[in-house]
Amino acid sequence: MKKINIKTVAVLALLIAVEIVLSRLLSISLQNVKLGLSFLVVAFAAREYGILGGTLVGGLSDLVGALILPIGPYFPGFTLTAALCGAVYGIFLKNANIKKIALAQIINNFILGMLLNSFWISLLYGAPYLSLLPIRAVQAAILTAVGIPALHFMNKYVPSILRK
Predict the structure, then answer these.
(1) What do you get for the CA distance between the two ends of the chain, in Å?
(2) pLDDT tens digits, 64-73
(3) Is residue 20 part of a domain?
(4) Which of 34, 81, 127, 149 is the least buried, fewest Cβ under 10 Å from its Cβ?
């Protein structure tokens, strides 16, 4: 991560706020499925500030969002998953090509989103784990199909906020 200064803290705080708005207010939520574009904010933080930046924006936006705009009971497993998603973006999005972008989306949507978050839902609500997987696989497929071109566009055309 780049040197931590007032500008870095301010930008990360703004990205956390934008992620909360996109995730909590401007996404589609149906029972155990949520579709939205908030992942772009976490990915942007990871691209700009590396693994630590992505992890902080992912984890803190989930924690703060759960405290100020709760969707259900707070569960730390979801915060862990959100932080891990930011870390995955931090690993793959620096100088990313389409293969790295696709790999990041597959890991985040299928392994972390579908498998790990389904486990958390199963623990939290007592839902049978295997019965959650089919609908969450559809969610993961949709988010991956939308996410790969969106992240490619972001990496190619959205300028760095750090450049003057």
Answers:
(1) 19
(2) 999 999 888 8
(3) yes
(4) 149
